């Protein structure tokens, strides 16, 4: 069994604690770090091996979407899962995140209730098995066409 190391990036201390609890409920997942901002996440990425990053959309300083773009510009291709209430089906933030290279999106309000789905998404992303579904592909194409 290969452990999946996750960096959780969220400005809410409560969300970080909840995500830690959910993620560590799976014996194949370990928390590599907890960051309250993109700047803190950058420092942690320099110090820790990370297989997956969970990233909030709305944070002070750099937003999660801006940070995702920064990671890609820097050549960091660690899979990112956007965790936000703003990444539900049909939301522009979801489509934008997927266009920018996020491996997946999950509504963090459902993290406890749908923990099995979240854990599967994290492990799929770590193993490069996460897939974008047809509905999201259509939304991406529509957003590209509108640009």
Using brief descriptors, characterize the structure shown.
single chain; 147 residues; alpha/beta; five-stranded parallel β-sheet; 6 helices; 16% strand
Descriptive report:
With 147 residues, the chain is of the alpha/beta class. It is built from 6 helices and 5 strands, in the order βαβαβαβαβαα. It has helices at residues 13-24, 38-47, 64-73, 92-99, 115-126, 134-146, and strands at 4-9, 29-35, 52-55, 80-83, 104-106. The chain has a 5-stranded parallel beta sheet with strand order 2-1-3-4-5, sandwiched between helices. It is globular and about 40 Å long. The N and C termini lie far apart (44 Å). The model has no long low-confidence stretch (mean pLDDT 90).
Q: Briefly note the structural class of the backbone.
A: alpha/beta
Q: What are the secondary-structure elements, in order, as H or E?
A: EHEHEHEHEHH
Query: How many DSSP H or I helices?
Result: 6
Strand order of the largest sheet: 2-1-3-4-5
Percent helix, as a range, is: 40-55%
- First-last Cα distance: 44 Å
Overall pLDDT metric? 90
Shape: globular
Low-confidence stretches: none
Strand content: 15-25%
Major β-sheet annotation: 5 strands, parallel
Report the radius of gyration as a whole number of Å: 14 Å
What's the total number of strands? Answer: 5
